[in-house]
Model the fold of this input.
Amino acid sequence: MASDTMRVEKFPFGIAGVGVGEIERRIPADEPPPLPVNSALQVIGKPVQRQDARGKVTGAVRFTVDIKLPGLLHARILRSPLPHARVQAIDAAPATRQPGVRAVLVIAPQDAILRYVGAPVAAVAARTAAAADAALRLIRLDYVPLPFVVDPDLARHPDAALVYSAGATPPLAIAEIPVAAGLPLTGNVRGPDTQGSRGDIAQGFAQAEIVVEGDYRTHTQTHCCMEPHAIVADWRDDGLTVWMSTQFTAGVRQELAQSFGLKLAQVRVKVAAMGGGFGSKSQLGSYGRYAVMLSRQARAPVRLVFDRQEEQLDSGNRPATWQHLRLGARRDGMLTAISLLEYGTAGVGVGAGAGNFAQALYTCPNFAAAQSDVFINAGRGSAMRGPGNTPGAFAMEQAIDELADKLGLDPLALRERIDPSPVRREERRLGAQRIGWDRRHKPGADPGPVKRGLGVAQSLWGANVQTNASCEVRLLRDGSVEVLSSVQDLGTGIGTILAQVVAEELGLLPEDITLRIGDTDFPAGPPSHGSRTTASITPPARTAAWKVKQALFRQVAPALGVAPDQLVARDGRIMVRDDPARGMSLREAAAGLRTDQLSATEARRDDYGGFRRRMGDANAAQNDIGGVQFAAVAVDTETGAIRIERVVAVQDCGRPMNPKLLESQVQGGVLMGIGYALLEQRVIDQPTGHVMNADLEHYKLAGPRETPPIEVVLLENYQGQSATDAYGIAEPSNIATAPAIANAVFNATGVRLRELPMTPAAVLAALRPVPQRS
Amino acid sequence: MSEPGRTPSVSRRSFLGGAGVAASSAALLNQVSLAAAADEPAIAGPGAVAIALTVNGRACEVRVDPSATLAEVLRGPLDLTGTKIGCDRGACSACTVWLDGAPVASCMLLAIDVGDRAVTTIEGLAQGDTLHPVQLAFIEQDAMQCGYCTPGMVMSCAALLQRVPHPTPEDTQAAISGHLCRCGSYPHVQEAMQAASTTRKT
Done:
């Protein structure tokens, strides 16, 4: 709905606990009035139970892997056993003749180049998965092995085997990560990308009174969603229905319509329960296309579910990086120059840049970055929880810690000088108090073999919004209320949050609201990546609920003998504001509707204060999301084992909508950060190019035994930017963990670990370097 | 391998003596071969075979491929999809069910080997509409996010609570140590178990 007229409203503004004042905002006239602070609300900001919790603890909720349809076929994919090969001949006819086989797809025809172990070659759909597997084994395939390289350092060598030979173009599209176009490809190196550089870097270093520099390495991390990548595709003459474990139903619908020449109206994408994505399920993916093609061929529904090995080889990963970071500063700590030289690898893909963090977090007039993607013969990288900023923070936050140490400054005191964010200032204060920062000793000061230390690191993430995000609210004649949007719940609890928003506006309880989400038959919702779901979909949900309420007020006002603007909705009733005894239940009010339902559909408006940056549907709000994490560690200098004794995570996300769900999500972010810091690492065998730990036994995730007490402190940061003023937290909570641990290890031992993961062997090697033979 | 001229460490005579059988060696060998025949498992397959299972208190007969795991049979023909497959290799415990009350990884057990042991899945944990205390505590403490690992986690926690009415945090940690949760629900699972422990009437 266009809104020509604007009005001015006063919104709560500031950080709860520090001081909340007011800010005037010009807002569209048909937007709801400002929402007061959480303490003045009934449902929003309260630890409301997860709406689908009962279904999850009883096993009743259906994930994509649980979908069953009459005549369902099972698809399996034949994958490359070689890291680099040309297909000389492929004969799939024997598979076609196998009993039970209904469709066969040759993915890599003659002369196709396979660029990594696990690259898809062919696919089969059969009555059972076993029959499909048996059929795959009958496909006759001749390969010509080609030279390959799986080590990113070796791949940069001029004589290295080429992943993309002359004429071949690497695929550039990647969800969520902006990739610069038109960069040169030299050997296996694409770049450098120097975007974001500012000032005069040479002059900046000339002004520096102190310089710290170091080489940092981060490894390839895999998403390890517990529900594998999964799709059920049902191609019919009248249209295509797809169930998919996806972070973006509306986007998958778009991709399907484009890929298969269908009208959007002919494509429906659904997801009920969704078993984790972390960035790896943002797009349709080639596997999604294969499933649809098989279904079209077989004229039957096809189910394609990755096994765990496929998950580890071909479902995306967090790119590895090598970063040379150099900081120049004056004696008072003020930064004069930051330069970053980075080579990252996303396997056969692009998007390994990690420079945003060093570019954006601290005040510094001069910044220079040169970031390059290095191709290797390994599965393609993708966005993963805080892409770029997570490896970027590992380097930058250690460099800042090192600078503080060299300046003789407390790391928190240094950040007070160079970090202008009032949000992180308060987060540092709260976190320092909670962890007991004042008992932090000098590096390596513990006398015994087990040395303890405290470390801190900061996070930075965009306050992202997608304006192409819609939601419908319906009030039905029996008083029941529905919320409808294609937005998907990955386990974050966005459904519960929507119920809270609508319940708050209509004076109901969250359990009174029926959720109808995860289905493109409903208004198109936002993607759930970039931590933008809450910011994008809760404001239109509130606006829609408010409009339904206004329409209801207009209908019942005459019966109550007052003007509509005298009415309020509270405790399941519609009543006169100044005379609460006069009123009726919402159910009675709904029973008198002239039509069977009242409905309003709203889309996300621009942030009231405007956006800092626009990129199509995706916009960055005026403020960034912060976060400061503290880690307490004990390092056994005899075994090299790092034990994390405690983590304090102080996080902000605008208005916190549900502290219980936020706490769950932050704990998850910290745990993924602990895995990144200490345990996880994809290992590729150099001679064969095979991933040696493509499973969950040897690829180590943090488990219950590696879980320290994680204390979550949430800031209420009111900015008056939307009808809910709420933002996301998934990614911010993952970024600071690994550098906080590394800084704590330095504080414990006096030795800095610049390479992930920080294994016992790495700790011992750093503590007692093996003397080089001359 | 024994060297020439030296007595092997175990001779047939000492084996027979050790077996404690005062009979001729021929008679003994006869007995052994009969026993072996009796222990020999029936050959199943290669086609589907009919088996009887007791799942959540209900007896059922299903035809299964001999290579089918219990997890596959539960999720497939029995349509009990609450049991999840995460790794299919016994590494993540998402598929945990009870066998005679003890938690097992159902992806590591062939359905034909279940025999007459009682299988309990997540669907069979509640008593009608009354949830198990662990299920209630999981809801109250938000001990889940995506919920994919949750059924397995609940089964291990409930088994612990049957065995140890008031588990310590260490007991819980041990009980769920094989479970992987990428969303990181372990801290809230711990809180849930503490809540379930203190509210439970024993």
User: Anything to note?
Assistant: The two ends of chain B are 59 Å apart (CA to CA).
